[in-house]
Automatic annotation (TrEMBL):
Keyword check for Glycosyltransferase: yes
Signal sequence segment: 1-30
Entry GO CC: Golgi apparatus
MF-aspect GO terms: UDP-glycosyltransferase activity
Alphabetical keyword list: Glycosyltransferase, Signal, Transferase
Organism of provenance: Muraenolepis orangiensis
Pfam families, sorted: Glyco_transf_8
UniProt family annotation: Belongs to the glycosyltransferase 8 family.
UniProt-recorded name of the protein: Glycosyltransferase 8 domain-containing protein 2
Length: 350
């Protein structure tokens, strides 16, 4: 009997120890980061120009066209950081390795959308603008990129200039990023007015809300486009830009300070607030945009030829129909080896 009690005590002690070990492991286990590296590349050189671009499963061909245009128009050494969701990692790799892009240097980063919980709420007017990858630009310091400077590009752009020139821009002291102002490039003003594009803060923020008024931002101030920018990561971290952006996402979640109906997206307003009067302007020819705002209003050939970067921001993307200047975009299109991404054209089955 004494032996049995002794055995029971030993077993009970072992169970308690095991329970403590399991509890400690659970409490100290780090939560999954919002961005996880799923493919590794060579870190042997710091002379590469890092270009960040997001690639969603249903727009993979768009991202690949952007990458192809950047790669084809420079002799600089590049590394592409391609951010996607878990369900598109394999497709991203296959798209590159099975096409003419297989020679590029790249890394695939998987974005964890759980980081957006409590910060983004459904918006029925433009649900496509709520895709988690639209917010990757907020979390640049969390990407596994060991560079002090990087370029971020939306997937609906075509680069016609040498990306090295954009990368080499001199940022003003204390500025964490450089954007194109919406009041630059007079050549585009007529088209912008014709499609009713918003180019001031009044078109992006709800000035009826006290917290917006308290910002002290003149509603007539010119906005900028956050789909193309150069980022200084040291300043970004120093100023805690990501935390500032998250704060405005959370405020909007609670108070509805902006919506996709007002702003054409919920990823732009936080950037407009945080970077108001705190950014360097890039050459406007490095973001000739609004090509996707109307299927009927395009640019003359002299503007298209001079543009170093063309941006189809808006609903009418160049891989869809109708759209403007699709033939310009198609010069850089790389057909999907899996056949999942196809161009929507008159007479197609899309």
């Amino acid at each position: 009997m004494a032996l049995l009690r002794k055995v029971n005590r030993v077993l009970l002690t072992l169970l308690v120890v095991m329970a403590c070990v399991l509890l400690h492991s659970k409490l100290t286990r780090a939560p999954p980061p919002p961005l996880q590296l799923t493919e590794h590349g060579d870190r042997s050189t710091k002379s590469l120009i890092p270009v960040v671009i997001c690639a969603s499963e249903n727009r993979m061909g768009a991202a690949m066209a952007t990458i192809n245009s950047v790669h084809s128009n420079t002799e600089a050494s590049l590394i592409f950081y391609i951010v996607t969701l878990q369900d598109a990692v394999a497709l991203t790799r296959q798209y590159i390795e099975s096409t003419a892009l297989k020679g590029i240097q790249y890394k695939i980063l998987e974005f964890n959308p759980m980081v957006l919980r409590g910060k983004v709420k459904p918006d029925s007017s433009r649900p496509d603008l709520l895709h988690p990858l639209n917010f990757v630009r907020f979390y640049l310091p969390l990407l596994d990129i060991n560079y002090d400077r990087l370029i971020y590009l939306d997937d609906d752009v075509i680069v016609q200039g040498d990306i090295k020139d954009l990368f080499s821009i001199r940022l003003q002291p204390g500025h964490a990023a450089a954007f194109a102002s919406d009041c630059d490039l007079p050549s585009t003003h007529e088209m912008v007015r014709s499609v009713g594009m918003q180019t001031t803060y009044m078109g992006f923020l709800d000035y009826r809300k006290r917290i917006v008024k308290d910002l002290g931002i003149n509603p007539r101030d010119c906005t900028f486009n956050p789909g193309v920018f150069v980022a200084d990561m040291q300043e970004w971290k120093k100023q805690k830009i990501t935390k500032q952006l998250e704060r405005w996402m959370e405020e909007n979640f609670r108070q509805n300070l902006y919506s996709s109906a007002i702003a054409g997206g919920v990823a732009t307003p936080p950037m407009l607030i945080v970077f108001h009067n705190k950014f360097t302007t890039i050459d406007p020819w490095w973001n000739v945009r609004h090509l996707g705002w109307s299927p009927d209003s395009g640019y003359p050939d002299n503007v298209l030829d001079k543009a170093k970067l063309l941006h189809w921001n808006g609903r009418y993307k160049p891989w869809m129909y109708p759209s403007v200047h699709p033939e310009v975009w198609e010069r850089w299109f790389v057909p999907d080896p899996t056949g999942k991404f196809s161009l929507l054209r008159p007479g197609s089955n899309g």
